């Protein structure tokens, strides 16, 4: 098996953070982001399906904050909502409901956290 190209190795943390997959040049498809090195196609970045985006974003925030959303303190829940908002989570359909359910709070609470974030900006 050939060694992974240095560009692909360097992009592994980025792909991991995005929930994306790095593919070799021979596996690149039209919807992938092509990755070139010195004019040669060395691979591609395959972005994840948006249907799975919110659970991945929630998982990342939980990992960063060290607990599931429901176990967080009020202050940490506000921080989690800020991080999710910064990453565009609330642009996704029904995300307010899903985050509220994950935190075991009301939708109104999530809207209040979002309003507080906007007011402090």
Summarize this structure briefly.
With 121 residues, the protein is α+β, with helices and mostly antiparallel strands. The chain has five helices and three strands; from the N terminus they run H-E-E-E-H-H-H-H.
Structural summary, described in words:
With 121 residues, the protein is α+β, with helices and mostly antiparallel strands. The protein has two domains: 6-48, no CATH class; 51-120. Helices cover 51% and strands 13% of the residues. It contains five helices and three strands; from the N terminus they run αβββαααα. The chain has helices at residues 6-18, 53-65, 74-86, 95-103, 107-120; strands at residues 21-24, 33-37, 40-46. A three-stranded antiparallel β-sheet has the order 1-3-2, covered by helices on one side. The chain is elongated and about 50 Å long. The termini are far apart.
Produce the secondary structure layout.
Blueprint: H1 6-18, E1 21-24, E2 33-37, E3 40-46, H2 53-65, H3 74-86, H4 95-103, H5 107-120
Antiparallel strand pairs: 1-3, 2-3
Report the order of strands and helices: HEEEHHHH
Number of domains: 2
Compute the separation of the termini in Å.
51 Å
Secondary structure: number of strands: 3
Q: Largest sheet at a glance?
A: 3 strands, antiparallel
Low-confidence stretches: none
Mean pLDDT level: 92
Strand content: 5-15%
Specify the helix fraction band.
Answer: 40-55%
Number of helices: 5
Tell me the structural class. Answer: alpha+beta
Lateral strand order in the biggest sheet: 1-3-2
The best one-word shape is elongated
Radius of gyration: 18 Å
């Amino acid at each position: 098996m050939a060694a992974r190209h240095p560009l692909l190795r360097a992009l592994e943390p980025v792909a991991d953070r995005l929930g994306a997959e790095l593919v070799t040049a021979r596996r690149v498809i039209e919807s992938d982001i092509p990755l070139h090195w010195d004019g040669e196609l060395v691979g591609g970045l395959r972005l994840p399906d948006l249907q799975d985006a919110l659970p991945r974003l929630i998982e990342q925030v939980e990992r960063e904050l060290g607990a599931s959303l429901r176990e967080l303190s009020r202050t940490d829940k506000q921080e989690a909502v800020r991080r999710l908002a910064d990453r565009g989570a609330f642009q996704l359909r029904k995300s307010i409901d899903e985050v509220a359910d994950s935190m075991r709070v009301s939708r109104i609470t999530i809207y209040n956290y979002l309003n507080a974030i906007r007011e402090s900006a």
